[in-house]
Write a structure and sequence with these properties.
The complex is a heterodimer of chains A (440) and B (463). With 440 residues, chain A is mainly α. Chain A contains 19 helices and three strands. Chain A folds into three domains: 149 residues, no CATH class; 229 residues, no CATH class; 31 residues, no CATH class. In chain B, helix 6 packs antiparallel against helix 9. Classes of the chains: A mainly alpha (440), B mainly alpha (463).
């Protein structure tokens, strides 16, 4: 306890709040362990409730995995916001848990509606709602399939829907003006992947994509809150260069953002591998192939979006004075977000087929990087002044030069999407060509 | 134990061959570009000398770069080298075989390119940022084209392994050839990467990454084609032919990469051609998958022909619209399984396009080339169109009639808009070559017409 006290004093955190949040987090961890490693399926009925005279509650392995992000994120939110002890938040978590455990559609609907209104206005609401994506998405699909025996044409329809939503979400992420919208768009894209994968019989991918959406969504939402607190905004066009002042946060951001891309060894890469395996051997028709094309488009666009988001936030020169002055605060909030990032990394491990191949690949990648970095470090280096590219010298109150001479996130997306003023983008030109043909 | 040792030796040889091919290809391309520009080429092994020279210099770190900046170049080289070493080139069943699947290679190549783009963004410079944005856009096209080609291969071969054999169905092979052509266009047309603010060893590493990435895509393309033999790591007697074939592949790639920029219409379409070819490959593959009779897909032919007429009317771009229409006929030939028609059409389309590129603007050769592309006699496309439409008329005569009307209308538009103009022509150093190509086009059309005077075997082969 004395050591904890010293640590909390060093971090500048109130001891009582820390003790509360840590104990709450420990309770939640125990709950997760119980659901994951306890009996795989246990259910009971409560009579006298619900429109049918009874409701059924139960937890199986899939249900436990779906519920895990809710508990995990709520624990992290409690860690990240130490004075957050609103009863409504706790009630919201319980409602989500109820929904996850509900074995019929009535309980599921009851849970999600209750949780939504209970958590409105609480700190960390958005993170909690995003963490409920798996349970809100996969649980109803499971209910539809298992209890209502729906398949066939509805499956094809849902697969086509997934094939459409996945690239749409990724495309919105490519164009998002701020981190919060980026988070929502990536969650939408991953939800599309999950829906399509579920109907294609890839339960592992569906659950993995949904859990990834939950963890990255919640983690990036907490980071967006942190940025708003430290810098005053989370808009890409006002950030930049955070890797210098906030290296820890940038590293976590790197993990989160590139987890939703096809860059190895991230979870997105694992999802692509698993989907590819299924699509290559499936001959069930056009819907499956359309889903395959959707996955390909999602993978290309989400990689673009990840490069753009990370480049705009952490690399380049700061685009505002507050961004230039921002520094890492090593507190429990950052630790909580780091835990979520580790969780997002581990999702890939659970989804990927041939885990040892991925491990070998990662080791080889890391090994070559380390050797090259070591060899490069031996030759020595010199700092060179910034080249102003012919622009006038900036005034003294702009220590990082004029931000207008640097590309913005909006400008970065222009070659792909075009702008209203000049149709230089790939999609704009395609649409213009189609429109010109249709117009005759 | 012996088998494992053989696999280990084969893996080491594969690594060495890939590295040698990367250097030779880069040196050859530099030599060819210098020759094309009328300059004296540098020494053949200049890229190697450059690497040694750059590696001895000190690193220059830009003032505003992030703490992550030193990682980008090693990361890029690491990803590109792994991609190049994982793709089977001369041997299969090596130690890296479990990783030799399309998504792994695509992921690694994406990682390499992402590192390059992030390096360009790192120092926060405007021009570098713009080139990074363009490179990121190209990355989207690159991933889509590569993935579509890989997916078509996986579906046809019903295997994840890149060198898995496929059947000899014409549509499948043509689909793969189209995909491969798209990949080579990606290679030959793209700007090599935004030059990050790097110097010394960093610069050397980026050069190595670019060379290895190029070899990786070449080998990927040949592997998806799958009709070429490759050595088995466990059978020593197959090693020599495998190594010889490896170098043949690199030489063919070199020739394609030097010819492709000439064949491609214009620079601004560089992104769209590979993606269109990849999509076309997928479209060709579709009838195999969804079990729809090919005659139901024949409507694509008149749609493309009449679409070309619309483009011609609205945009006044004769070459593009003619290419669109003839591609429609080619699709019809593929669906009707007119083998000789497919060959003649493909050859004539390439020759016609080449003639347009080589000829001087508004010259006689250009007008003749346009007539050839319009499918008028006595040029090769006329013969190809006839073969294709004849085969298609057995399936859907109404659709063919509609297509023929469209082709005639298009030819009339081309003649009235372009060919009848009074033109002078400008001097062009390639004019002589262009005449040779037009002569080849004419021969391609005239020979089938003279088939009645030929021996029976030749007639059967031609038709």
């Amino acid at each position: 306890m004395r050591r904890i006290g010293r640590t909390t004093r060093r971090l500048g955190i109130d001891g009582g709040a820390t003790a509360f949040s840590m104990s709450a987090f420990a309770v939640l961890l125990v709950l997760i362990g119980d659901t994951l490693f306890g009996p795989w399926f246990s259910s009971f009925m409560i009579y006298g409730l619900g429109p049918f005279g009874h409701i059924t509650l139960g937890v199986d392995r899939v249900g436990a995995i779906l519920l895990m992000p809710v508990f995990f994120v709520s624990g992290v939110v409690v860690l990240a916001v130490p004075d957050m002890c609103e009863w409504r938040f706790v009630a919201g978590v319980v409602a989500f848990a109820l929904m996850g455990a509900g074995q019929d559609i009535y309980v599921a609907t009851f849970g999600i509606l209750s949780a939504s209104w209970l958590t409105v206005g609480c700190a960390g609401t958005e993170a909690l709602l995003l963490s409920a994506i798996p349970v809100c998405l996969v649980r109803p699909l499971l209910a539809l399939h298992v209890f209502m025996h729906v398949g066939g044409s509805l499956d094809n329809l849902l697969r086509l829907l997934g094939a459409l939503i996945a690239p749409l979400g990724a495309a919105r992420a490519c164009n998002a003006p701020d981190l919060q919208r980026y988070v929502r768009a990536t969650a939408l894209g991953l939800s599309g992947i999950a829906v399509g994968a579920f109907t294609a019989g890839m339960l592992r991918v569906a659950v993995g994509a949904a859990v990834l959406a939950a963890l990255t969504g919640a983690g990036l939402t907490l980071i967006a809150n942190l940025l708003r607190k430290e810098i005053g905004t989370d808009e890409f066009d006002w950030l930049g260069g955070l890797a210098r002042g906030m290296p820890d946060l940038s590293l976590i951001l790197l993990i989160f953002i590139f987890a939703v891309s096809i860059v190895p060894p991230g979870a997105g890469f694992a999802i692509l591998l698993r989907c590819w395996r299924r699509i290559a051997f499936d001959r069930s028709g056009l819907a499956m192939l359309t889903y395959g094309v959707g996955v390909i488009a999602w993978s290309a666009l989400s990689t673009f979006a990840a490069i753009r988001a990370f480049g705009a936030i952490s690399l380049g020169r700061p685009r505002s004075l507050r961004a230039a002055a921002a520094e890492d605060t090593r507190d429990l909030g950052l630790l909580g977000v780091l835990l979520l990032a580790v969780g997002a990394l581990l999702v890939g491990w659970f989804v990927v087929p041939g885990r040892w191949s991925l491990a070998v690949l990662t080791l080889m990648l890391t090994g070559i990087v380390v050797v090259l970095r070591w060899a490069e470090a031996r030759v020595g280096s010199d700092f060179v002044p910034h080249w102003t590219e012919g622009f006038a010298q900036p005034p003294v109150w702009m220590p990082f030069n004029d931000p207008r001479t640097e590309i913005t996130a909006s400008g970065f997306a222009r070659p792909l999407f075009g702008s209203d003023k000049a149709s230089i983008g790939l999609w704009s030109r395609l649409w213009a060509a189609i429109r010109s043909v249709l117009a005759l | 134990m012996i088998a494992f040792l053989l696999r280990m030796v084969a893996t080491a040889m594969e690594l060495a061959l890939t590295a040698v091919a990367a250097i030779l290809l880069e040196a050859g391309l530099i030599w060819m570009r210098a020759r094309g520009a009328g300059r004296a080429p540098p020494p053949f092994l200049q890229p190697l000398f450059d690497l040694v020279k750059l590696w001895r210099k000190r690193r220059a770190i830009p003032e505003f770069s992030s703490p992550l900046a030193p990682m980008w170049a090693p990361l890029g080289v690491s990803a590109m080298s792994l991609a190049a070493f994982v793709v089977p080139g001369a041997f299969f069943d090596t130690l890296t075989q479990p990783l030799a699947t399309a998504p792994v290679v695509i992921g690694l190549l994406s990682l390499g390119r992402a590192a390059l783009i992030l390096a360009a963004l790192d120092a926060g410079q405007g021009a570098r940022g713009l080139s990074a944005a363009l490179a990121a856009r190209d990355l989207v096209v690159f991933v889509i084209a590569l993935s579509l080609v890989g997916l078509v291969h996986s579906e046809i071969a019903r295997s994840l392994t890149l060198v898995a054999p496929v059947g000899s169905d014409t549509a499948n092979v043509v689909a793969q050839v189209l995909g491969m052509a798209g990949l080579f266009l990606v290679l030959s047309l793209e700007e090599i990467a935004p030059a990050a603010d790097s110097s010394g060893p960093d610069r050397a590493l980026w050069m190595v990454a670019a060379m290895l990435g190029r070899v990786a895509v070449i080998l990927f393309a040949f592997d998806t084609l799958s009709c070429l033999d490759i050595a088995n790591a466990k059978h020593v007697d197959s090693w020599l032919p495998g190594v010889a074939l490896f170098f043949v592949k690199i030489i063919v790639a070199f020739l394609l990469m030097t010819v492709a920029p000439i064949l491609a219409p214009i620079k601004r379409w560089s992104w769209s051609i590979p993606a269109a070819l990849a999509l076309l490959a997928l479209a060709l593959f579709l009838p195999n998958l969804v079990e729809i009779p090919s005659k139901s897909w024949l409507f694509i032919m008149p749609v493309m022909i009449w679409g070309a007429i619309v483009v011609m009317r609205r945009r006044d771009c004769a070459v593009d619209s003619l290419m669109l229409a003839q591609t429609g006929v080619l699709v019809g030939a593929l669906l009707a399984h007119a083998r000789s028609g497919i060959v003649v059409l493909l050859a004539a389309l390439i020759l016609g396009r080449l003639a347009i590129v080589l000829s001087a603007r508004d010259s006689l050769v250009e007008r003749l080339s346009l007539l050839a592309l319009a499918g008028l006699p006595p040029f090769g496309l006329f013969a190809g169109d006839c073969l294709a439409l004849h085969a298609a008329s057995n399936l859907e005569p109404e659709v063919v009639a509609f297509s023929v009307i469209g082709l005639l209308l298009l030819a009339f538009l081309v003649i009235s808009k372009t060919v009848t103009r009074v033109v002078g022509g400008t001097p062009n150093r390639w004019a002589a070559t262009a005449w040779v190509v037009v002569a080849a086009l004419t021969a391609l059309g005239v020979v089938p017409a003279m088939a009645t005077a030929m021996p029976g075997t030749l007639i059967r082969w031609m038709t």
